[in-house]
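User: I'm designing a mutation panel for Phage baseplate assembly protein V and want to avoid disrupting the core. Could you give me a predicted structure to guide residue selection? Please restate the sequence first so the numbering is unambiguous.

Assistant: Good idea. Sequence first, for numbering, then the predicted structure tokens:
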Amino acid sequence: MEFRFIRTGKISSINYKECSARVEFDDAPGIISKELKVLLEHSNKEKDYSIPSIGEDVVCIFLPHAPSVGFIVGSYYSGINLPGETGKIKYIIFPDGTKVKYDLESKILEVSCIGDVNITAAKGIKIKAVSLEVDAETTFKQKVTGVDIYSPVIKTDKGDIDDHLHKDSLNKNTTPPLG
């Protein structure tokens, strides 16, 4: 068989620690490559990590002066495996259904996670928006140490919190909260 600089195939095994994989080539069924490094966007001060899955279609390149040295350039969609959504969007969908998507036209970032979401910051987290909606089906917990929380109006399904009244011991309405 003549030497080919570019070959296609399917991932047959993965070495996650070495960021490499073996590929069964489309032009030589049953022939499995040596471990090939997966090309990534960054691997120095910035780091990126994403490995194709077993059975995923990939493109490989090989060095002309060292035909046994090659790299997995990336994966591609085939007629059987097409993207679920297309357009001016960027997204990643994980095997469990978790999804991160950005729509370049509407400027909306969506995160849909099957499990918990943890956000940790060494200093602070700022959320700045015209409005903030929290929809918790079971419990919403708030713990703040050493600071006051101020909100001009907090709305609930039973009305604004600063508009509510309590009953006193004689079952009469108390005065509204003082501003």
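For picking mutation sites, this is relevant: Residues 88 and 104 are 6 Å apart (CA to CA). The chain has a mean pLDDT of 84.
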